[in-house]
Every structure is written in structure tokens, then in C-alpha cells.
Design goal:
By secondary structure, the protein is an alpha+beta fold. It is 27% helix and 26% strand. The protein has a ten-stranded mixed sheet, with helices on both faces. α1 crosses α3. The chain is globular.
Length: 230
């Protein structure tokens, strides 16, 4: 999506920035890890394919993504500069939203993906902080997100984001617990609650999801993101 191309999100615990081309080499190295590939159900890509994927996440109207970075004190200028606050050494992972419409096309479902790729930084609360900041942004900008989605897809206006979903490998207990802690619940069905054919646990947050986010994010600020890269 284009809506967040010039927006960084700063809280007391995390920094989110748009996924830009200068992030790709580090992201590409992350995705070579077999454990990350399994956790994200991803296949390894060439560096050229990774750049194409980054461009897709920037331009496609159904995809919203931020790179998760270590927190920083908001600059006095109110501007986050590419390559400084989000340098390779400060990058932690990413958080994404993928929008879809059922056949009825009278509402939208958002699928969330979250990854803290730097293993030494896992278990320190960055995933939770990044998720809450991201959900707050989605709640604050729901109308703009849906407007871009509707315009490019030529979908009739008036849609609402009815539900958020996430699919997590059944063995990823820590990630399941994280999403449950912010209000997601397991989908009922199957031999085990929430488990699908692929061994994934599906969790959802229904139409009251907006009421569950925002208040718990300390120091939430949206700042200008300025890229010096071409």
C-alpha cells in the first residue's frame, strides 16, 4: 500500500517504518533461515525476487507492511530518516496486513503476519509492542486503508474491516500466546480447536477489534518518514 510510505510509528517500546528497498538485503538474509521459512510457510527467494516482493508490498492495494525496529527517542524534528533510525543493526522483523473480501464483497477480512527474525531479540516483548502499534495504526487509518483497497480493486465503497485473522504453526506456542494476549481467540473446529489441515492454528478478533487496541500503546506517535534512497 501507498498510504504508509511516508509514515513511521514510534512508541516507547518499538519503531515501525515502511518496508523500503534498502531493507531488502537484511530481509533476504533473514529469510535464508530454515526455522523462519518453516514458521512463515515461505520458500527462499533470490535477491532479485526479494526486491520484486518488496515493491509488491509497497504498491499492491491489499498489502500493508512495516519493518519492526528497535525503539528510538523521537527526533526533535519529528522526522525519521531512512538508514539511520532503521539501519540494518536496528532491524528486528516485520508486521503485515493482507486484505481480502469474501464472495459477498460486503466486508473485508484482514490477515495479520508478524515476525521477529533476529533470534537474540526474541522474547523481549518486541513482537507484542510491534503488533499493538500496528493494530493501532490500522484502527486509526481504517478508512484510508479501505479507500485505497476499494479504489484499486474497483470494489463498491462502504466496506468495513469486519475481522482480523492470523494463522500460526501449531508448534509456535509463544506466538499463539502473544496473539491470545492481545485479544485473538482460536477458531473452533477440527480435531483440535483451531488446527487446520496444514497444522496451523487460526485465531481471530471479531468486529469489536477496534475496542481492544490503542489504549495499551504507550507513547504512540506517527512521524514523517523521509527516505534518502532512490
Amino acid at each position: 500500500m501507498l498510504i504508509n510510505e511516508k509514515t513511521a510509528i514510534s512508541t516507547s517500546k518499538i519503531l515501525l517504518v515502511p518496508y523500503e528497498s534498502h531493507h531488502v538485503p537484511t530481509y533476504h538474509e533473514w529469510m535464508k533461515d530454515a526455522e523462519i521459512q518453516e514458521a512463515t510457510a515461505s520458500e527462499p527467494l533470490s535477491i532479485e525476487e526479494e526486491y520484486a516482493m518488496q515493491l509488491s508490498w509497497r504498491q499492491d492495494p491489499d498489502k500493508l507492511t512495516f519493518i519492526v525496529c528497535l525503539p528510538t527517542s523521537p527526533p526533535a524534528s519529528g522526522i525519521v530518516t531512512a538508514g539511520r533510525e532503521d539501519s540494518d543493526a536496528r532491524m528486528l522483523g516485520d508486521v503485515n496486513l493482507f486484505l481480502t473480501t469474501p464472495d459477498t464483497q460486503d466486508f473485508v477480512i484482514g490477515e495479520i503476519e508478524l515476525m521477529i527474525a533476529v533470534k537474540s531479540q526474541q522474547g523481549h516483548g518486541y513482537g507484542r509492542a510491534g503488533l499493538l502499534a500496528f493494530l493501532t495504526y490500522v484502527a486509526e487509518h481504517e478508512a484510508g486503508l479501505l479507500e485505497e483497497f476499494e479504489r484499486e480493486r474497483m470494489v463498491e465503497g462502504g466496506l468495513s474491516l469486519k475481522e482480523l485473522r492470523v494463522k500460526i504453526g501449531e508448534k509456535n506456542v509463544r506466538s499463539i500466546a502473544l496473539f491470545e494476549s492481545v485479544g485473538f481467540t482460536k477458531v473452533e473446529g477440527g480435531e483440535e480447536e483451531g488446527e487446520n489441515y496444514f497444522g496451523e492454528i487460526e485465531l481471530t478478533m471479531g468486529k469489536r477489534w477496534r475496542e481492544r487496541v490503542g489504549e495499551r500503546v504507550d507513547g504512540y506517535r506517527e512521524l514523517e518518514y523521509r527516505s534518502t534512497y532512490q
